[in-house]
Specification:
Phage tail protein beta-alpha-beta fold; Immunoglobulin-like; 22-stranded antiparallel beta barrel; 5-stranded mixed β-sheet; elongated; membrane; TonB-dependent receptor plug domain-containing protein
């Protein structure tokens, strides 16, 4: 029996060995299409239909190709101009039509008509594709019959090439069920040659727990790797060791110079008016310039072309409303968004009713507006506008030896931005955008004191006024072109001209006995220009690159500064879900910010490069690995950045020092930062969120500060962790949580004190002490951490949707330090005292859509 079984096994083994050897031998003899057909007829169950004209086509078959798999067979034959059409068990081989057609058009939201930025448009036959630009435009070469279009959060759509024509518009509908898992395969998306880039949607931003009930885009950016918050509760941010002035914040292509409301506790960006947000931390494309550390590119909504819609919210701090709709249905639309705080409407009347001699109030408001008009299928015009203003004031009265003094102190600051854009499609491959821009930021500080003598009420007004103001304004014109050479080359080029007008600081005094006396820095003009060219190129099926150069120049007085800035990013795919990326970028910055503190006060002054103050320069190298598994994205990046020509105030100097020009108040130095960033993000499904960890180090070095020795940057924090979690419990209830941790801020504190050689006989001790400081920023505050929670309740109504959001900021009441000072009350036993201003803070808001 055993012998019989062994014989049977040997026979089977001999049969399969012989068959395999024979099939392998036959594979080696496949030199033409006719040989391939013979092989398939012998070793597969498929039936075939083909033209005799294909028989003599020469082939090369690699051993790793599985000829029993029709998909691999199709990939094998594509380079030889042969396509495979499967009809059940029948395989039809036919000569491919090599006529390359160009399909161009726009991808838009089916409901609103809004442009979809970064949508993937793919040739179904070859698998090659392109992404839509900022205005939803694409141009794709295809030799097949159909194209596929996809965008995150929208239904996948497949279209026939024959349906494409002039003014081709692809309208994508939103997915009906956002709670189900969505698998996005590599074949459905086009991986760009980019790194150190994160994109956020308003929907992501609005899901997070917020401070005082106000959704804030800039605070969401603080939760990303490589981005650090400034002071607690503020919207300021620092990227990869850079300063606050090194972030270029663009609103519809226009720079915003101060992005803070209420001393930075809120940002100027209303999330309801925003369509998309893109943060670039490194590997900067050549089309961007003018800052060293980051680009924040914000696009406002265009307005619904088909029907009227709106949304709004009522919170503890402010209320807002956004309305959009058609002016001329299908042709012209508008978007209008307004927001205002009502702190002054409640606090000030209550203070006056209580009979207080002192009233402190404040408010802010902002307005976003946009109109877009379709002139023709190839021409579109946009007009966008933003204006916002803050006002804080302090009024009090007191008697001073028979003289009543009424004092009013007030700070005001605000931005205005506007843009006029014209899109034009010259050909199926060439698209242009021309933009005229204007932006202005202005800061004003004033005090007025009125005196009145109690014994002479009829005396003339006696007063004293002090004013200080600073501003910067830009007028610019830029042209950007996108040329889709083919599916492997997207060429972008353009130019920009900007005229800066700056008034770093002017003081004005007047009184009842003195006319206006004005002194301070004169108005300064700075003219800046740049040209650029970049090519987003596919070097092979697995290798993509973005190679470009940015040339800029600026005229400062009699000096002209120029800068050549090479840029490149390389993306090498190692498998279907793994990529290695590398980048280098050089950046130049011709304007600077003199920072008085770390919380984004409006007293931070913008100043230009001059004959004495050189432009800031930086060089950054980055290397990273990224992977995608189902709906989870993972990336690890390391970077090293060098910065030159940085400026800081001299020790003891400040913006109100009026005895000297601002150039005489600053020191010049350099900086260096490096670190590693880890990011895991889940974008779809019932539970979404991300985990972010950053290890970093940032130093500064100035010849006349800290005795010329390097010292830690104010926001040098070794460890930063952010955990963001959102759960859609069901279609009505959402839960959000954010936990953050960071190493404490670097601060300058004394480590010992020595008594002065001055004797105070009344106190029987030394009058004062000399403090010893071991070095600039040589001490650390306590580590920072907090947990924010929120829960929202949605309900559909006959007019739309309403939502209640309840949240807790700093839910376990961690007293994080915002400031540390030396307590001098006990002369012989001095201690440090910590100031914390944000304990557990509950909030509630009511939101609605119609």
């Amino acid at each position: 029996m055993a012998i019989r079984a062994a014989s049977y096994f040997g026979f089977v083994l001999l049969f399969f060995t012989t068959s395999w050897a024979y099939s392998q031998s036959d594979r080696t003899r496949i030199e033409r299409f006719s040989d391939l057909i013979s092989y398939l007829e012998t070793y597969t169950q498929f039936k075939f239909s083909y033209s005799g004209k294909l028989a003599s086509i020469a082939l090369t078959v690699h051993e790793s190709v599985n000829l029993n798999d029709p998909k691999q067979l199709e990939k094998l034959l594509i380079p030889y101009g042969i396509e495979v059409v499967r009809r059940g068990d029948l395989l039809i081989f036919r000569k491919r039509d090599n006529t390359v057609k160009n399909v161009s058009g726009f991808v838009r939201d089916a409901e609103s008509g809004e442009s979809l930025v970064g949508a993937s448009v793919m040739d179904v036959t070859t698998g090659k594709g392109v992404a839509t630009n900022t205005f939803g435009f694409f141009s794709l070469n295809t030799s097949g019959d159909s194209i596929a279009v996809s965008f995150v959060g929208y239904d996948y759509q497949k279209l026939a090439v024959k349906d494409a024509g002039d003014g081709f518009v692809i309208a994508l509908s939103r997915e009906n069920n956002i709670l189900t898992e969505v698998l996005i395969s590599g074949a459905d998306t086009r991986e760009l040659a980019e790194m150190s880039t994160v994109r956020l949607s308003p929907e992501q931003i609005k899901k997070l727990p917020v401070f005082m009930g106000e959704t804030d885009m800039l605070k969401t950016l603080q939760l990303l790797p490589g981005v650090q918050a400034g002071t607690e509760g503020t919207a300021g941010f620092h990227v990869r060791g850079g300063g606050p002035d090194q972030n270029l914040i663009l609103l519809d292509g226009v720079p915003v110079y101060n992005a803070n409301h209420l001393f930075g506790f809120f940002s100027v960006f209303n999330a309801d008016a925003i369509k998309s947000v893109e943060l670039i931390k490194g590997g900067f494309p050549a089309r961007y310039g003018g800052r060293l550390s980051s680009i924040v590119d914000i696009q406002m909504k265009e307005g619904n072309l088909h029907e009227l819609e709106g949304e709004g919210a009522v919170g503890l701090v402010a209320s807002k409303i956004t309305i959009s709709g058609p002016i001329n249905k299908g042709k012209t639309s508008f978007m209008l968004s307004a927001r205002r705080t009502y702190m002054d409407a409640f606090v000030v009347p209550l203070a006056k009713l209580s009979g207080s001699d002192r009233v402190v109030g404040g408010s802010f408001w902002d307005v976003n507006a946009k109109v877009n008009h379709i002139i023709s299928p190839k021409d579109r015009v946009y007009v966008s506008f933003y204006s916002g203003r803050d006002r804080l004031y302090d009024e009090y009265s007191y008697d001073n030896e028979g003289v009543k003094e009424d004092e009013h102190a007030e700070i005001q600051w605000g931005n205005i931005t506007s843009a006029l854009r014209w899109n034009h499609q010259y050909t199926d491959r060439l698209f242009s955008n021309v933009t005229a821009t204007y932006t202005r930021y202005q800061f004003e500080l004033g005090t007025r004191v009125n005196y009145q003598y109690a014994d002479d009420l009829n005396a003339p007004d006696i007063y004293r006024d002090n004013e200080y103001y600073s501003n910067i304004s830009d007028v610019g014109l830029k042209m950007d072109f996108d040329y889709f050479l083919n599916n492997d080359h997207l060429i972008k080029f353009g130019a920009n001209l900007v005229h800066h007008a700056l008034r770093p600081g002017v003081s004005n005094f007047r009184s009842h006995i003195q006319t206006d006396t004005t002194f301070g820095s004169p108005k300064i003009a700075l003219d800046e220009m740049y040209v650029y060219a970049e090519d987003e190129v596919s070097l092979s099926n697995s290798t993509r690159a973005n190679i470009g150069v940015h040339y800029s120049a600026a005229r400062a007085g009699s000096t002209t500064y120029t800068s050549w800035q090479p840029r490149f990013t390389l993306n090498q795919r190692l498998g279907p879900a793994l990529s290695v990326k590398a980048s280098y970028s050089r950046m130049a910055q011709y304007i600077h910010l003199l920072v008085n503190s770390g919380i984004g006060l409006p007293t931070d002054l913008w100043v230009p490069s001059t004959e004495r103050v050189k432009p800031q320069l930086s060089d950054q190298l980055a290397l990273g690995v990224s992977s995608v598994y189902k709906s989870i994205e993972i990336s690890v990046e390391g970077y090293h950045k060098w910065m030159d020509n940085l400026i800081e105030y001299k020790d003891g100097a400040g913006f109100l020092d009026i005895d000297s020009r601002w150039e005489n108040k600053v020191e010049f130095g350099s900086g260096k930062s490096y670190g590693a960033e880890f990011f895991v993000q889940k974008k779809s499904g019932r539970s979404t969120g991300w985990l972010s960890y950053t290890w970093s180090k940032s130093n500064r070095e100035f010849d006349n500060l800290n005795f010329g020795k390097p010292f830690p940057y104010r926001y040098d924090r070794r460890h930063n962790v952010s955990v963001v979690y959102n759960l859609a419990v069901n279609s009505r209830i959402d839960i959000g949580a954010v936990w953050v941790y960071s190493t404490g801020n670097a601060v300058t504190l004394p480590t010992s004190t020595y008594p002065k050689a001055v004797w105070d006989s009344n106190q029987a001790g030394y009058e004062d002490f000399i403090k010893h400081y071991p070095g600039r920023n040589s001490s650390r505050m306590k580590d920072y951490h907090r947990l924010d929670l929120s829960i929202s309740f949605k309900k559909a109504t006959r007019w739309g949707e309403r939502k209640w959001v309840v949240g807790l900021y700093n839910s376990y009441n961690r007293l994080n330090p915002i400031y540390i000072e030396l307590d001098d009350e006990n002369r012989l036993n001095k201690k440090f005292r910590q100031l914390s201003i944000f304990p557990l803070i509950p909030n509630v808001s009511y939101q609605f859509k119609f």
